[in-house]
Design goal:
Strand content: 5-15%
Bound molecules: zinc ion
Radius of gyration: 32 Å
Number of helices: 4
Shape: elongated
Length: 108
């Protein structure tokens, strides 16, 4: 057997064992898990700090791009929350709490 193959096999074996150890440590040791999550959070915080301006610029662009859609959605929600009734005189759809019909102008 070539030496390269044996070395490769040993490296793969070590990586597999390390993977198992890591997984079990994650599963059964809350302290280890917390430490790793803490590190991940630290990394995220660093990343956010480092790219604050980019993130702000992206969220501004997204806000600008979705402005119209957000307005439409907000309007739809508002409309959906309203109760509608039909005008007694002309049959137009009007808000339940309106005093006058906005189509024919008659008192409800
Ligand atoms: Zn009416």
């Amino acid at each position: 057997m070539p030496v390269g193959f044996i070395i490769f096999f040993i490296i793969v074996l070590i990586l597999v064992i390390a993977g198992f150890v890591f997984t079990f440590a994650m599963m059964f040791n809350p302290k280890f898990k917390a430490k790793l999550i803490g590190k991940q959070l630290e990394a995220n915080k660093y990343m956010v700090d480092e790219h604050k301006d980019d993130i702000k610029s992206i969220s501004d662009d997204v806000a600008e791009a979705t402005k119209g859609a957000t307005k439409t959605t907000a309007r739809a929600i508002k409309e959906g929350l309203k109760d509608f009734v039909y005008c007694k005189y002309c049959g137009a759809e009007i808000e339940a709490d309106s005093k006058f019909c906005k189509v024919c102008g008659k008192k409800q």
